[in-house]
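fyi for ur records
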Amino acid sequence: MAANMKAVKLRIKSVQSTMQITKAMELVASSKMRRAKERAETCRPYFRELHQTLQDIAEENTDFASVYARQASSDKCCYVVIAGDRGLAGGYNANVFKRLEADCEGKDYVVLPIGKKAVEYFRRRGIPCLTEEFAEVANISVADCFEIANLLCTEFKKGTFGHIDLCYTAFLSMLSQQPEVISMLPLMDLTAEDRERERPRHLILYEPDAETVFDAIVPEYLAGLIYGGVCEGLVSELAARRTAMEAATSNAEEMIEKLNLYYNRARQASITQEITEIVGGAEGI
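which gave:
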């Protein structure tokens, strides 16, 4: 009985230590999330308007001379995948990878991972990566996004792949984060996304010509889309981690309560047994 009580007491201390860690991680995620949420909310209108503008250009363009506007000559796809740097964030990383697997099934593709978990995931599975230089999503800056966009555009023009998609997690609320895949290039793919909408076309005259304009602005648009996806992914990761750590802390509290109850019952049973033995010995004398 004494050995059993000692084991329970050690278990209680162990769970208490774990609860302190999960509580601390919850507080850290909450403090970081406020700033990340503000940045995501600031970038979200720009992110959505940027994607909408690309759709408008694709819908209204009649000059498909630019390599960015022509029908893709290659079926190979490049996915820019934004995941987290660490675990303990519930299903955040797993949901991103499931969404990617559902979209890329049966396709020939390469990836450009952003985030340590994304790099580890594709490295384990032997999936070819365009580059692994952007392994820490927390350190991605606007300049890095422009560098990524220029790299993608260069490889796209070379014909390394014919499609570019962005896989990220959209922040809907504190309790809801939804992984999404959106098309970035070529503009013909955006036209396909926009077929459901019927509206009059307003033809645009580009100076000096559409190809020069597209070659100049498309990398800028891609950089903005990637940065918006990074901001959305960061706040989604922190929200998922905060929810997961809050649930873990709550479970630890329940476990400690049950262990304390079990410990008190075992202690009471031990005391009762000792009293019974003393009384029995006294009566025997």
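The longest strand covers residues 163-173. thats all i got for now
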